[in-house]
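Here comes my example:
=====
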Amino acid sequence: MLPVRMLSILILLFSLCDADSICTTEFKMDPPEIIAEYGGSPVIVNCTTTLDEHDGMYWTVGNEIFQLEDEELFISHSVPVSDWNVTAECKMKLNESYECSKDLKVILFKNPEVVHSVQLVNVMGEETQYRLQCDIINVAPVQFLSVSWYKNNENIRTMSFNDTTKTPVNESLILRVDISREENVAQFRCEAELDFGPHGPKLPAISQTHSISAHYAPELKTNSTADIYQLRGTNIALSCEAEGNPPPVYNWICDGENMLENTNSLNITRVNRNKTCTCTATNYLGNITKTIHLHVEPRGCPLTLTPSETVVKFGDPVSVSCSTSARYVEGMGWEAPAGHTRFESLTAATWMIEKFQDWASKPSCNITLNDDFQCSVSPVITVYKAPEMVSVTELDNTQTARGTAYKNYPHTQHKLQCDIINVAPVQYLTVSWYKSNERIHTQIFNDTTTKTPVNESSILKINISREENVAEFRCEAKLDFGPHGPKLYVNSQTHRVSAHYAPEKNTKKSTQDIFLLEGTNITLSCEAVGNPPPVYNWTCDGKNMLENTNSLNITRVKHNATCTCTATNYLGNITHTINVHVKKRGCPLTLTPSETVVTFGDPVSINCSTSATDVQGMGWEAPFGGTGFESPPVVTWRVEKLEEWTPSPSCYATLVDGSQYTEKPVITVYKTPDIVSIYPLNQSHMTEEHVHIVPYNKNTRTQHWLGCDIINVAPVQHLTVRWYKNNKTIQTQSFNDTTTKMPVNESSILRIDISREEKAIEFRCEAELDFGPHGPKLPAIFQTHRVSAHYAPEINTSCTVDISPLEGTNITLSCEAEGNPPPVYIWTCDGENMLENTNSLNITRVNRNKTCTCTATNYLGNITKTIHLHVEPRGCPLTLAPSEIVVRFGDPVSINCSTSATDVEGMGWEAPFGGTGFERPPVVTWRVEKLEEWTPSPSCYVTLVDGSQCTVSPVITVYRPHGPKFPAISQTNNVSAHYAPELILESSTEDIFPHGGTDITLSCEVEGNPPPVYNWICDGENMLENTNSLNITRVNRNKTCTCTATNYLGNISKTINVHVTPRGCPLTLAPSEMVVRFEDPVSIKCSTSATDVAEMAWMTPAGDKEFKPGSDVTWMVKNLKWWTPSPFCSITLNDDFRCSVSPVIIVYKTPETVSISELNHGLMLKHKEDKKHNMTQYKLQCDIINVAPVQYLTITWYKNNKIIKTQSFNDTTKTPVNESSILRVDISREENVVVFRCEARLDFGPHGPKLPAISQTRRVSAHYAPEVNTKDSTHDYLLEGSNITLSCEAEGNPPSVYNWTCDGENMLENTNNLNITRVNRTKTCTCTAANYLGSVTKTIHVHVEPTGKTNKITFTVIWALPFIVAIIIFIFIAFYCRKQWKKHGHYSFVSDKDIPLNITQSNGSN
C-alpha cells in the first residue's frame, strides 16, 4: 500500500509543476494594466487563455466574485474606475485541486490644480528676497507627480514624491529667490505633471507663471530742481519723472497748497503768477522730492479799440471797432450782454448796438492766440441822459414875522431846492443858480460810482427883504463832458418867492361820505391852499397810507374805512375826514370740479368758467399748465402727467373796472403704499409713547406687540390703518399730519393678549387711502401675521427614563419638550456640559454607565428630564450562515461569516485549511472543495476600529454513509408574533430646519405586525399619503406634520415640526453704497453667484424693469433726477425662489450760495468799571441756500481763520433745503475789526467724495459812542464878510451823524464841516456828533471885527515895529561879544558843585 501512495504523491507534484508553467504562459490579460482618470467610464479588460482543457474562468473585483464560465478561452469584464482602492483578478480553474490567477494592475489618477503665490520677504540693498509657494491641489497618485520650477523658462529645480497613497492629496513646495536690481524682472513658473513612464498616457503639464522684480526706492530721472519761464495766461504741464518699484505715488504741493494730483504730471491752466511747486514720489522704501520754480512773464494784449473812449446818449446807436496786429490768431470777438459777436478767426471785429440801453455795460473784446494765450480790452463808454426835468421848490420858510411884529424883521429867509430829475452820469453834472438872470451860486457833484440816472438836488439859502416882496430865481443844470464831449443845458422854470400863510380848505365841510362796490378802485381828494403849499398826510383807520399828495388812490377796496387827510405847512394844518362805505361783491368764478383726487403721474384738468358779463379776461396761474390772459367764459388748466405733490393752480379774472378775483381748486395728489408689512416688536425696541404697563398673568395669557409698516404712501392725512383679528376689526388708526403731501413711511403698533386656548391667531394689518364719499375708492393693501400664546416648556414623556444600550454602540438620547417659544436645550452627563443645544444627544461607542440630564428652557421657565444609561456587555457582532452544518466526508463545504457592525476594521477565517487573509467587511467565506478532515475547527474573527476582537466557530459534523438514505419529505411554514405599531426611534417628536424653497422628505419609521397602514396630516390637512415617507416640494413656511401608523392592535403617532429658515439672497451689488451728484450719471452692477438663475432684473418704484437671464445686470441712469432713488435688484431662481437687494444711494447738491448777514446791528454790553472794556454783541446768521442732503452738512465758523464753532444737522430730508446757522459774538474795542468766515461743507466720510468747502467772510467791529478829537476852540478875530469853515472831527462806530446850530439856529448841515460865507457878526456854533450809543458836543466861538477897525490895527503895528528891530539888534551884539571873550582867555563860573575850573589860554595850553 505504501508504494501506491508514494506514486500518487509524485504524480500530484508533477501536475502542480506543470500548472505553474501553464499559468505563466497560457494565461494573459489585455490590457495588462489600467491607467485611467478617476470617475471616468469603466474599462473593459479581456482575460485570455490558450489552454483548451480547463474547468472554467471567472473574475473577482474587490470582494465580489463573478460567475464561473466553462469552456471559454477568454472572458471580458468591465472594471469600474470610481474606487481608489479597486482590485481585479482573473482566475482559471485547472482542475478540482488547483487554479491559477492573474492580478490586474490598476492605477487611477486625478490631474491637479496648481496655485502659485508670491510673498515679499525682505529688501536688502540691491536685492529683493521673495518666497514662492506652489500648491498642488487634489492630485493622485502622488508617487507619479513631478514638480519643476522654471526661471525665465530655465529649469532650476525638480522634485518627485515617494508617498504611495492612492487617494488625492495636496502638496506644497517653497522656493526662496533673490532678485537683483540688474535683473529687473524675472518670470518664475511652477509646473506639475503626472508621469507614468514611456508606456503610460501623456498628461498635459499644469503650470502657473508669476513675474517678480527687485524693489527699490524712487529715483528722479532728472535734476531735483528746475526753473521754468512761462508767459502769463498760457497752460503748462509740470513733469516729475521718477522710477521705483513698487511704482511711486505722487503728491504735488504749490505754494503750500495740496493740488490733489497723484500722477507724475501737473497741469496748470492759464498761469498768472509765480509759484513754487514740489513733487514728492513715494513708495514704502522711501521718497524723493523735485522742486520746480515757475516764473511767469507778463504778456501784452495785442488789441486796439477805435474809439477807445466814447460818450453816447442812452438809447442812441453806438459802435466800437476792435483790431489786432497779431498774426497767429485762433479767434477773436466781443463779449457783451448785447451786441456780442461770434468767436472767429479775424483781424478785426466791431461791437455795434442800434439802441444802446445799458447803463453799466462793459463790453470786452477778447482774443485767443494759437498758443492758447487769452486777453481782453474794454472801451470806456460814458452813457448819459439829459435831465428829464429841472425844478425849483422851497424846502421851508424860516420867516419869523407874525402879525404886527413883522416890521421888526426886515428880511425873510427862504431855502430853495433845485431838483434835477433822472440825470446820468451825475459826476459830469454842474448846477448854477440865477437871481434875475445873474449867477449867484454854482455846485458840482463828485459821485463817480453811480452810472444810472439819479435825482440830485442843490440847495440855496436866500434872504428876501420886504421891499423886494417877490423875487425870481432860476436853476440851470449842465452836463459837461470836457473839451471833446458834448455840452448839454437844461433850465428850470422861474420860481417866485412870496408871502406865506397857513393851509385853508376850499370847502366848508370837514366830513364827507362815499358809497361804492367791493373791489372797485377809488380816489379820495383833499383840496387845500396855503403858502408854502401844504404837505398832505393820509391815514385810514389809524394806518399811515404813506401818501403826501392831495389825493389818495385805493385799489380794489374791500372793507369800510375812515380816511383822514391833514394838510400842513410850517404855519399850521387843517384836517378833512372821508367815510368810505363798501358794499359786498361776490366772486364771479366757478371751478369744475372744485375738488379733485388724482394719482401721482396721472393727467388732470379743471375748467374755470364765469357768468359775469363785465370780464375783461381770465386765465390760470400755475407752475405748470398755466394759460395766458384769455377771453371768457371758460379757460382750462390741463396737465398730462401730474408729478407735483402740492400743485397750486389758481384761476383769475380781471373785470373791466380793474378789479380782480381768484379761485383755487382743492387738489389731492395720492400714491398707494408700495408695501404693507407686519412684524413682531420686542418691547425693548419700543418707544415710550407706545409702551403701556398693564396687569399681566404669565400663566394664562401672552402679550404681543405687532408693528405694521406702510411704505411710501401719500398723502398721509387720508391714510387709515385697520387691524383685524380673525377678520374682525379690533383697532383703527388715522393720521392727522396735514402738512406733509409727499410720500412718507408710517407705522402702527398693536398690543394684544393671546390665551393658550386660542393657540394660533391670524392678525391682519390693512392700509387704505380714504378720500370720503366723493373721492375714489381704492383697494386696501394688507398683510397677515400669525401669533400664538407663549408657555413654559413641558415634556411629553416621563421625566426619568432608563435605557440599556450595548457596550460600544452609538446611541441617541431624546428630550422632546413642547413650549412656545421653542425651548433651548442643555445636556449634562455626570455633571459635564455636553455642549449640545438640540433636543437629542448622540453618544458614540458608549462604554460605561452614566446619568444624563436634559434641561429645556425658554424665557417663561424650564423643565428637566433625566436619563439613566445602563451599559450591557456587548456580544460578538458576527453571524455564520450556516452556524451548524452536516457534511459528508470528501464533499465540498462553505460557510459565510458576516457582520452588521459599521465600525469593523477587518475580518477573516483562521483554519488549518481554507483560511483567508484579513479582508474588508461585511462578508468573508470559508470554503473547502473536498473536506477530508473529521474534526475541522475553522473560526471567524473580526477586529473593530476600537481595537477590540472576537471570534465565532461553526458546528461542523462530518459523516460517512453506510447504507442508502431516503430523502425526508417536509413542508415549512413561518409564523410570527403580532404586535401594535412601535416607533423604531424612541422620539415621537422631531424638529427639522430646511431652507425655504427646498424639497424635503419626512420619514416615519415604524415596525409592527401586521405591517401598519400610514396616514399623514399637515396643519390639519390630510395629505393622502399612505407610505412611511412624505415628500414636500419647495417648502416655504413653517408647518407641523403628524404621521399615524395603524394596525388592528393599535396605532402610534410621530410629530415632525418643520421650521423653515430664511434663504440667503445670492446677489452682490458693486458698489453697494454710493454718493452721486444730482443730475450726474450713475450705474450699479448686480451680479449673482447662483448657477440656477431663471431671470434677474433691476426694478424701480415707477415699475421700470427689464428681466433677462444671466449672471449680472446693470442699472444705469445718464441723468439722475431723483432725490430718493430706490432701485432694487431682483432675482428668480429655477425653483421659483425670489429675493432682492437695494443699494444705498446718497444724492447730493452743493450749496448755491453761502452768505452772512447781521440779525442786529450791534448790541452794546457796558462794562461797569471801565468803558474801554465795553463789548459789542453781534448776532450773525449764515444762510446756506439749496443744499442736499442736509444731514451731511457741516457749518464751520472762523474768527480770523481760527475755528470757533462747528454745527451739523440731523434732518434726514433728502431734497434741497435752506439752512441757517447763528453765531453770537462779543467784540471788544481793542480788537477793532474782526473777520468772520462761514464755511459750508458736505462731508460723506472717508469713502465718500471730497467736496470743496463754500464760504463767505464778513468784517465786524466794536461799537462805541462818539468822541471828539479836539476840545472847544475859539477862532481868531475875523474880518466881517470873510468865509470860514468850522471843523468837528469825531470818532465813533457806527459813524456819527452831525448836527450844527449857530446861536440856536439849525444850520441843516449833516457833515463834520460847516461852511459860513460872508460872516457878518460874532456867533457861537455848536456841533453835535451822535450815534445810537450817545453823543458829544463841541462849541466854537466865532469873533467878527467890523471893517472900520482895520486902521487902528495898522497904527499899532507901525508903532511896535521900531521896538522889535531894537530887540533883535541887542541880541546880535550880545552873541558877538561872548565869542570874543572866549578868544581872549576869559573864563566863566559853573554853578554845579565839584566841577573843575577850565581855563583856556590864547596859545592853546592848559
Summary: The helical segments are 2-25, 1350-1383.
